[in-house]
Every structure is written in C-alpha cells, then in structure tokens.
Write a structure and sequence with these properties.
26 strands; 18 helices; 583 residues; binds flavin-adenine dinucleotide; alpha/beta; seven-stranded mixed sheet; FAD/NAD(P)-binding domain; five-stranded parallel sheet
C-alpha cells in the first residue's frame, strides 16, 4: 500500500473541499495539500457527473461563486431574476481549480478523483486516510485533516416492502441525471417519491421528456413542500427572493442562535406587537406558497393536483421548501402529473401499491428522499470521540451532555418563549426514534472538542453553500495557524449544548442534528469571521444590514488575513525552526 505524508488531506472536492484547499494554499502556497474525491468530477451536486436537465440554482449570479473569482454565465444564457442553470457552476468550478496555481502546481493536480475514502484512523498524531482508486488500495498520512463530504453525498433510500419483486428500475435522485441522459425511445411510467425541490425538479423534467409521471407524497410526512417564486420580493436592492433572506435585517426576523439580543430583536421576539409583525410577515409568505400553483381553481388540472398545496410553516420550516425557477412549472405539472398523497404499502411486479389507495402500474421509481450523513469511514468509537452523531446509549458522557442540554434548553426558552409552542409536525426532534441519536457535538459545527487536528466542513445546512464553504475555510486555516483563540473545554461544551438546544426548538422537523441554520447563516458567518478577527461588515452599516451578502463582499479576505497575521505566522515558523515554543 503506497503512502505519502502531507500537510493537509481534505476529503471531498465539493464547494467546501475546494474552498478549504484554496484558502489554505493562498496562505501557505508551498504546503502539500491533497483533496480526495470519490466522484469522477469535482463539485458534489454541482459537478458534471451529477448535473441534470432542469437543475437551476437557488442562488442568483452575484450570490454564487467565491469572492476571489466572480461567477458569471454566458451572455446568451437563460436567466430568471438573476437565477441560472446549475451547469454553469460546474464550468466555474472546473476553471477555478485550473486557475489557482500554487508553487507551480494547479489546484486541479492536487485533487485525486475517483478516490473513495473508506476508512480513517489515527495513530499517535498522524491521520491515516485509506481508500480505493482504480481497484487498488491507497493511503495518505497527514497531521491535519479536513472532512468535507457534505450533507448530500450518501443517498437515503426509503425501505419499500417488496422492492426485490418490482422488476423495474429504482433509483435515487443522485442518479437522476444519468437516468435522463439514457436514450429512451418509449415513454415510461415513472413514480417520483418525495415532497421537496428535487422531487419537483424530477417531476418537471420527466414530463418534459415525455414520460407518464406520478408524484407520490407520503401521507405520514409533513406534506408537499412550500415553493416560492424567485420574483417574490425581487424589488428594491433584491434581484430575487433568496437575496432578501440573505440580509442581516431579515435574519433579525428569526430568533437568533449566534446573535446577541438588541432593542429591535427584543421587540420582535419578546412583545405581543412584535409577534404580530412576525406573524404578518411569515403568514404572508405561507399564503403566497399556497397560492402559487392556484391549486384549487387551475383549469385542466388532473385530480389530486390540489394535494400539492403546502401546509409548511416557513417560520418554523416544518417541511420541505424551495424555489420554483421555471415559469411554466405549474402549467406543466397540473395537466400532466398524477399526484398521490399516500404512503406506499408495497411494491409488486411493476406496480406501486399505495396504502388506502390504488395500485399503480410503474416502470421506474425515482426516490427524491434526501440524504443521510453517517461518516461511515469512522468507527462507532471514533464517532463518539469526535462528537459526530452516534447512539446516545453508547456514550458514557451522555448523562452530562443531557444535563448541559437541559440547562441550555431552559435558556433558549427564556430568551425566546415562542419556541415552546411549535406547530404539530410528523416527527419532532424529541420523538423517541430521532432521540436515540445524538446531535453533532462540534464547536462551530466544525471542530471536535478534544481533537483540534481535524475539522468538518459543510456538515451544516444553510441557504448559501458558497458563503459557508468560504468562511469555514478561513476559520479552519486560522485555527491551524494558531490564530483562533478557542474557549476552554467546558465553555465549548456549553456553547455546543446551546446550539443544539436552540436547533431543536427552532426547527422542529430539521433541528435534531444541531446543524440546520436556515435563518441563522448570517449570524454564523459573522461569528466565524469575528473569531478570526476579519471584517464581515464591509459596506457601511446600512448596506451591511439591508443588502444581501453577495460573493464579492468577501473579496480581499486573503489579503486582510495575510496583512494581519503574516508576521505572527513567520514568527512562529522561526520559533519552531529554533525549537522555541509550541505550534
Ligand atoms: C440537488 C441539489 C441542489 C442544490 N442547490 C443549491 C443551491 O441552489 N444553492 C446552494 O447554496 N446550495 C444548494 N445545494 C446544497 C449543496 O449541498 C451546497 O451548495 C454545496 O454543494 C455544499 O458543498 P459541500 O462541499 O459541503 O458538499 P458537497 O458539494 O456535497 O461535496 C462533498 C463531496 O465529498 C465527496 N465525498 C463524499 N464522501 C466521500 C468519500 N467517502 N470519499 C471521497 N469523497 C467523498 C462527494 O462526492 C462530494 O463531491 C443543493 C444541493 C443539492 C443536492
């Protein structure tokens, strides 16, 4: 088994892995960095191998890309409220890894594609990362490791009774792109299972490709997703709806995980008048999602179309949500797609049998059922040590974590009493089945408490993957450079308990793992940059508050970092060379 010793190994070449490699190399161009990627292309869902027709970004052009290279699309590209087809991100990332050259070696040449990491162990202070490439085992050794495998890499397939008797194709949304490029001369009967944006994309794409499409949304779940329109709120400084959501002002509309209360947020979250203001804002948004498809009066709609009306409460994010970018989406779905609001009882030979419903003849099933994230390359024992989700029953420290989380929970409710009364959801975070597993217990959702030689990037949900990837990259580089002053162990534990308790209360269907930050991304980014000592407020107080955080707002962070810390880093390097102090 071949083996190399490296300064940093990064697992995963999605936005997080690429960004981590780039910022670290910007600061340490001579260092030996390798990125290991299991896919045949870089980019995760944005990569060429997972791209599919109809995949449009949910972020606008100026919200996309990294701060050092502006993202753009060709002049003749179709663009809708600054929103664009995701394939342009593939091109951007491919160019990005070519154009970043350090010590005469492009970033691309540091990425090993088709390398699936299967096992990670640690011997003394060396990480050993093992995997397979071209059928041969390989390992890399490193003192520092960044795990950037994302939260959308491992398909979560539903357990469907009788699937071995089905006889047709059953695929996950990850393979939808490949499926759509297969030549198919005949229209097939295709069932799409799922309630969210990926299901909606698949349904639309399959109708356009001429298939007979059935959209199955399980009755026992939280119902169909809430879909918004990019043009909603495209006014004033906002080019589309997601831009409004990426402002600090909008973030104040939500109880904040990472922000300190001020007079305005105390008014919003602590008075009955504030409550009314918020109800007006969020109920208005819910109503827009209900109206968007004209679900009860659309001429020519097939029976069942009305079942697509969402009951998701956007304030609480009680279910799936997303942006419908295609102007003809509802006109395409309504007269062509058969919607079934049923659980699946079982599969039979080329049939989907619905519980309390019909049996549907079917050729193909597309499971748009999301992803799991179980870090299977770590052993169960490592997952406990590192603070990754694990069985509560297996953890000796569980009782003390429970005490911390109970204290934090009281603080959350004291600060935000409204969070004590969430709307009903199908599976609340404290339901026994979810409660068997711990949340992530990582400081800043990045760092294990007891091991500071490993960082987890992208193990977090937030509305803009680019911004999170870039800021996490800066934070971890600063950590490895000894610039971030970490709190003590107890303070870190309390902080983690707070974040997890907040997540559970704030996001009743999605907060169980402590890494869901739909309305908390701005606070999270400000916190990380603040801990590094870099400026996140760069446009003047009014624009910083009211305008969206776009890619170019982080321009110049490498320069700022180097100006501030070069002398310190060089001093430490000299000290190390002379054998003085630690490092
Ligand atoms: C269909 C879809 C649409 C989306 N649309 C948007 C959007 O419009 N805007 C937005 O901001 N976000 C969007 N997202 C969220 C998206 O996850 C983030 O934008 C971003 O991709 C996260 O980057 P990441 O690097 O953290 O994770 P990923 O991009 O998932 O990258 C992780 C990488 O790790 C690799 N990997 C996993 N396991 C291993 C292993 N064992 N060994 C080696 N490599 C491994 C994967 O192959 C992958 O390339 C979307 C996600 C999906 C699935």
């Amino acid at each position: 088994m071949a083996s190399e010793v490296l300064d940093i190994v990064i697992v995963g070449a999605g936005l997080s892995g690429i960004s981590a490699a780039r910022f670290y190399l910007d600061v340490h161009p001579e260092s030996n960095v390798v990125v290991l990627e299991k896919d045949t292309s870089i980019g995760g869902p944005w990569g060429k191998s997972r791209m599919y027709p109809g995949f449009w970004s949910q972020s606008g052009i100026r919200m996309s890309g990294f701060s050092d290279v502006p993202f753009s699309v060709p002049k003749d590209a179709e663009v809708c409220n600054d929103i664009y087809e995701a394939k342009y991100v593939s091109d951007y990332l491919e160019n990005y890894v070519d154009s970043h050259v350090y010590a005469e070696k492009p970033l691309r040449d540091r990425i090993r594609l088709d390398f699936a990491v299967g096992r990670i162990t640690k011997a003394l202070d060396i990480w050993i990362v093992e995997g397979e490439q071209d059928g041969a085992s390989r390992s890399f050794k490193t003192k520092r490791l960044i795990v950037a495998t994302g939260i959308t890499s491992e398909p979560k397939m539903p357990i469907l009774a009788g699937s071995s008797t089905f006889g047709g194709q059953i695929l996950h949304q990850n393979d939808y792109g490949t499926f759509m490029t297969q030549p198919s001369s005949i229209a097939q009967k295709v069932a799409v299972i799922g309630a969210g944006k990926s299901a909606a994309d698949a349904v639309y794409g399959l109708v356009k490709a001429g298939h007979e499409v059935h959209w199955i949304i399980r009755k026992s779940g939280d119902g169909p997703g809430a879909f918004t329109n990019p043009a909603d709120n495209a006014k004033g400084p906002f080019l589309n709806d997601p831009e409004l959501a990426a402002t600090r002002m909008f973030a104040t509309m939500s109880p904040g995980c990472f922000t300190q209360p001020n007079a305005w947020t105390r008014f919003l979250h602590g008075t009955s008048l504030g409550d009314k203001v918020l109800e007006g804002v969020f109920n208005g948004a819910d109503e827009k999602c209900k109206k968007i498809g004209n679900f009860h009066g659309r001429p020519g709609a097939l029976d069942g179309f009305e079942d697509l009306e969402s009951n998701v409460k956007l304030f609480w994010v009680t279910g799936q949500f997303g942006l419908i970018q295609r102007p003809d989406f509802w006109d395409t779905v309504a007269p062509n797609v058969r919607v079934h609001s049923h659980d699946i009882a079982r599969l039979e030979n080329h049939k989907v049998v619905l519980k309390d419903g019909p049996s549907l003849p079917m050729d193909v099933i597309v499971c748009a059922t999301g992803f799991r994230n179980d870090f299977s390359f770590f052993s169960a024992e490592q997952r406990i040590q590192l603070g990754l989700p694990h069985l509560r029953a297996d953890d000796e420290a569980e009782a003390s974590w429970r005490t911390l989380e109970a204290t934090a929970d009281k603080e959350v409710l004291q600060k935000y009493p409204k969070l004590a009364t969430p709307p009903p959801v199908s599976l609340a975070p404290d339901s026994p089945s979810l409660n068997r597993i711990t949340p992530n217990r990582l400081y800043n959702c990045i760092l294990p408490i007891t091991d500071h030689s490993i960082a987890f990037h992208g193990n977090i949900y937030g509305p803009n993957g680019f911004r999170i990837a870039e800021v996490q990259a800066i934070w971890t580089t600063a950590l490895f450079d000894g610039i971030v002053q970490l709190p003590g162990k107890q303070a870190m534990q309390q902080d983690i308990a707070w974040v997890n308790a907040f997540n559970r209360r704030r996001y009743p269907t999605k907060g169980a793992l402590g890494n869901f930050f739909h309305y908390d991304m701005m606070g999270y980014l400000d916190r990380l940059l603040g801990q590094v000592g870099l400026t996140s407020y760069r446009k003047g107080w009014w624009a910083d508050l009211m305008y969206p955080l776009i890619a170019s707002d982080l321009q110049g962070t490498t320069g700022e970092y180097l100006r501030k810390y070069r002398a310190k880093m060089e001093g430490e390097r000299t000290d190390r060379a002379l054998g003085v102090g630690g490092g």
